[in-house]
Amino acid sequence: MPKTPWNDDYAAGDLPWDTGQPDPRLVEFIESGAIVPGRALDVGCGTGTDAIWLAERGFDVLGIDLSPLAVDQARSKLGASKLRCRFAALDFLAAAPAEPPFDFVFDRGCFHGFDEAEERSRFARRVAAALTTGGLWLSLIRSTEGPARDKGSPCRSALDVISAIEPELEILELRSIPSQIESARAWFCLSRRRPDPEGPVTRSP
Ligand SMILES: C[S@@+](CC[C@H](N)C(=O)[O-])C[C@H]1O[C@@H](n2cnc3c(N)ncnc32)[C@H](O)[C@@H]1O
């Protein structure tokens, strides 16, 4: 089993982000009807709670995570369910996920983990490449706004977020929201893949 900080966290059960419940901002977004069920990718899916919830709402979901232990736990959670939901261990910065294109990409706390601006840009580029034209990416990002925090994942400013994402996708909404797991702020960032100058890629049926 590879030794990575994330894998170590999963081995130790040190998972403060893992509430065991679908993220309420994701739930609100999907239940608003902003996107109809289609093919979805959860990047940095952890133990799979949000991916499984999306599959229960009719999405065909691929959850990927760098940590093989997280993927094992997600697969256990899914069990023998007949849901259209799969999990794979993958470094999203290093390799494109199988089965593109996706209509919806979701990440909760993965994009914000990269300290280098180049890595965040690469992440956004990979999201754009994985999406259909017009496909949506919802990213929930730890924010620099609010009380200072001395532990947990790094925080990102609005400028960090926009600098990485705007060149690659059209930002539709960047909203400061309360963090779900601490008394601080987060960003709700919704962006859309622009039309492809090489020709359209249509949404899957
Ligand atoms: C803060 S956790 C959030 C997990 C999950 N989204 C949740 O909300 O429970 C960040 C996740 O991103 C994963 N991750 C970090 N770097 C990654 C990469 N390069 N490719 C894929 N996943 C990555 C970690 O293994 C970890 O599971």
TrEMBL record:
Pfam families: TPMT. The keyword rRNA processing does not apply. GO terms for molecular function: methyltransferase activity. Keywords: Methyltransferase, Phosphoprotein, S-adenosyl-L-methionine, Transferase. It comes from the Bacteria. Gene3D superfamilies: Vaccinia Virus protein VP39. PROSITE patterns: SAM_MT_TPMT. The keyword RNA-binding does not apply. GO terms for biological process: methylation. PANTHER family: CYSTEINE SULFINATE DESULFINASE_CYSTEINE DESULFURASE AND RELATED ENZYMES, PTHR32183. This is Class I SAM-dependent methyltransferase. It comes from Pendulispora brunnea.
